[in-house]
Amino acid sequence: MPESENEFFRIRKEKLQRIRDKGINPYPTKFHRTHTSKQAINQFIKCETTGATFDEKVSMAGRIMGRRGMGKASFIDLKDIDGNIQIMMRSNQLNERYDDLDDLDIGDWIGATGTIFRTRTSEITLQVETFELLSKSLLPLPEKWHGLTDTETRYRQKYLDLISNENAKNAAILRSKLVSHIRNFMNTRGFLEVETPILVPVAAGGMAHPFITHHNALDRNLYLRIATELHLKRLVVGGLEKVYEIGRVFRNEGIDLQHNPEFTTMESYEAFADYNDVMKMVEELVSSSAQYLNGSMKLEYGDQTLDFTPPWPRMNLRQKIITESGIDFLEHNTVESLKSAMGNIGINVTQQVSWAGLMDKLISEKVEPSLIQPCFLIDYPVAMSPLAKKSDSDSNIAERFEGFVCGMEICNSFTELNDPEDQRQRFEEQEKLHQEFQNEEMDRLDEDFLVSIEHGLPPTGGLGIGIDRLAMLLTNNPSIREVILFPQLRN
Q: Comparing C-alpha atoms, which of 220, 236, 304, 230 is closest to residue 270?
């Protein structure tokens, strides 16, 4: 602990002891609050508007964020979940308890009961008749209570960021509302919310390196799931025709503005639907989320004005790549050919060894930066989409789309591959590629999943949408760490 904090700690410990010596419990069990700051202020304004008198006693609780003394009166800024309110303590009202204010500090939690009025400066204020210490703070708030300035500290001590940074608190609240809206949206459309295992014997359903753990009782290695896809499709096989799950997935990857090793997705699967149906659902889900959180389908993100109003443009991936890079992937269907074509336009391909890896690099370098307004890239190569159904018109193309906003992928969707023989063959190809290119991310063969779809998976439209990235966009935050309450950080 820094020496300055040590001194604060010592002084506050002395105050804590004085409080205990007076027979006051500095950490009581509960406090009955009748109003939040917002509720009290709104009720008072409503009475003013209608000419009624708001003379009922109210009890509020919150953290002391500021304090000013004026003769025999003290004013305290009290902060709660809804905002701030000024409270006034008078010596002639509190009598001997007024001296107890000397042992209160900024950061302490208190409860106060009294009546609401307007001061001469027109500020709505609680005039306190009784108050109670609810929790004594032994350490001061950061930066003399003016907020955190160090980004790393903000993420490591998120609780301090929430106290001192209104944007951080709003992002947390809006993210929670976003998840609630998504859940309501899906439930209204007849989807059933389910839960699937986090510990799995095979890390399949996506192209990512997994985290490995060990189960002592079973004496076997297990993996943290990289996707919920294969278990959800098992449920569709079982007759649960419309299912979804909101939950954490885990990928052993780097950390940057758009990536965190554990993140939240919503995956859904709908029988008798294809990727066109899912595209329409995504438009409606995201646009309604924007409307719900911001009151409009148009909103600011950085220096961009985004318009989430449906319909979003559908862009053919092959044509878009040709437009942006001059490369036709159907004409460069080998690793050597594609690597040469990409090298010729200045793309560094030293880290990519598979054809799918090269394609992913080409898309991220040349296509994604141009995708600012909400849009869909559709019809991906089958080689990049081992779980997607082939197009009826072209066996090289899969019925797959990804949604993009501001160059950032927010969702991935397929018309799900339900031919068990084709699926087995593609998984076996992925296993061969995994052996050949062990450093690249590949999907894995899950035998239990293959057995399940051999019992019959109906035509199904599937979706995976990133909650964290969607929250970034809808709260105007450029970093994923701003919308995850406890992001992963380096030592």
A: 236
Q: Is there a domain that residue 93 lies in? A: yes
pTM across the whole model: 0.91
Check whether residue 121 and residue 250 sit in a common domain: no
For residues 2-30, give the mean pLDDT: 90
Instruction: List pLDDT tens digits, range 246-293.
Output: 999 999 988 899 999 999 999 999 999 999 999 999 999 999 999 999
Range of the domain at 41: 3-140
How many angstroms separate the CA atoms of 59 and 112, rounded? Answer: 6
Task: Kindly list the distances between the CA atom of residue 40 and the CA atoms of 35, 75, 116, 125, in Å, as whole numbers in the listed order.
Answer: 6, 17, 8, 10
Helices 166-188 and 275-294 sit at what angle, rounded to 10 degrees?
Answer: 140
Which amino acid type is present at position 154?
R
State the Cα–Cα distance between residues 339 and 358, nearest whole angstrom.
Answer: 7
| Cα separation, 264 vs 483, whole angstroms | 11
How many of the other CB atoms lie within 10 Å of CB of 165? 17
Same domain membership, residue 414 and residue 301: yes
CB atoms within 10 A of CB 300: 10
End-to-end distance of the chain based on CA atoms, in angstroms?
18
Q: Residue 400 and residue 313: Cα distance in Å, rounded?
A: 15
- Domain check: are 127 and 182 in the same one? no
Are 181 and 111 part of one and the same domain?
Answer: no
Give the helix ranges, DSSP H, for 166-209. 166-188
**DSSP assignment of 3-47, as one string?**
HHHHHHHHHHHHHHHHHHHTT--SS-S-------HHHHHHHHHHH
Indicate which CATH number applies to the domain containing 53: 2.40.50.140
List pLDDT tens digits, range 344-356: 999 999 888 889 9
| 407: nearest Cα among 212, 257, 185, 236 | 257
Q: Which two tokens stand for residue 422?
A: 């084709």
Distance of CA 200 to the CA centre of its chain: 24
Pair 380, 398: CB distance under 8 Å: yes
Cα(427)–Cα(433) distance, integer angstroms = 10
In a domain, 396, yes or no: yes
List b or e across 182-194, with b for residues whose CB sees 16 or more CB atoms inside 10 angstroms. Answer: beebbeeeebeee
116 three-class SS = strand
Task: Kindly report the CATH number assigned to the domain that includes residue 249.
Answer: 3.30.930.10
CA within 13 Å, CB half, 58 = 22
> Residue 320 domain-assigned?
no
Phi and psi at residue 286, to the nearest 5° = -70, -45
Task: Report whether the peptide linkage leading into residue 311 is cis, meaning its omega lies within 30 degrees of zero.
Answer: yes
Rounded Cα–Cα distance for residues 454 and 471 (Å): 38
Q: Can you state the angle between helices 275-294 and 467-475, rounded to 10 degrees?
A: 40
The number of distinct structural domains making up the chain is 2
